């Protein structure tokens, strides 16, 4: 069963959404950063990658103009958003803030 986006962002752990595109160089460069973040935070975070080309309605709803764009949701509420390359420490700070 496929979960809705609302189901995905309403988890008990913070949810990092990674809006990306297959043709985006910086998105590809973020892959090892996201992998390291998941390795460090393990189950204390959920990371969801969303391809803007195949999910245009969702990208439009959240006004994603450029990729990569990252958002952190906590219990369904967006608590942080940033476009462009991010470091592991920047993402960890965003996840632990608020």
Describe this protein with a few key phrases.
alpha+beta; 38% helix
Major sheet: arrangement of strands: 2-1-3-4
Instruction: Please identify the oligomeric state.
Output: single chain
Give the N-terminus to C-terminus distance in angstroms.
Answer: 32 Å
CATH superfamily: Glutaredoxin
How many beta-strand elements?
4
CATH level-3 fold name: Glutaredoxin
User: What is the helix fraction of residues, given as a range?
Assistant: 25-40%
Radius of gyration over all CA atoms, rounded: 13 Å
**Major sheet: size, sense and barrel closure?**
4 strands, mixed
Low-confidence segments, given as residue ranges, are: none
Number of domains: 1
Which word captures the global form? globular
The chain-level structural class is alpha+beta
CATH architecture: 3-Layer(aba) Sandwich
Descriptive report:
This protein has 98 residues and is of the alpha+beta class. It has a single domain, classed as Glutaredoxin, CATH 3.40.30. 38% of the residues lie in helices and 26% in strands. It contains four helices and four strands, in the order αβαβαββα. It has a four-stranded mixed beta sheet with strand order 2-1-3-4, with helices on one face. The model has no long low-confidence stretch (mean pLDDT 94).
């Amino acid at each position: 069963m496929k979960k809705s986006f609302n189901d995905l962002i309403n988890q008990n752990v913070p949810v990092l959404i990674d809006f990306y595109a297959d043709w985006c160089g910086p998105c590809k460069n973020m892959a090892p950063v996201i992998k390291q973040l998941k390795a460090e935070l393990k189950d204390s975070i959920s990371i969801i990658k969303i391809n803007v080309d195949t999910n245009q309605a969702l990208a439009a709803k959240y006004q994603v103009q450029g990729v990569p764009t990252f958002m952190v949701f906590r219990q369904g509420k967006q608590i942080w958003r940033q476009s462009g390359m991010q470091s592991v420490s920047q993402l960890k700070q965003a996840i632990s803030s608020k």
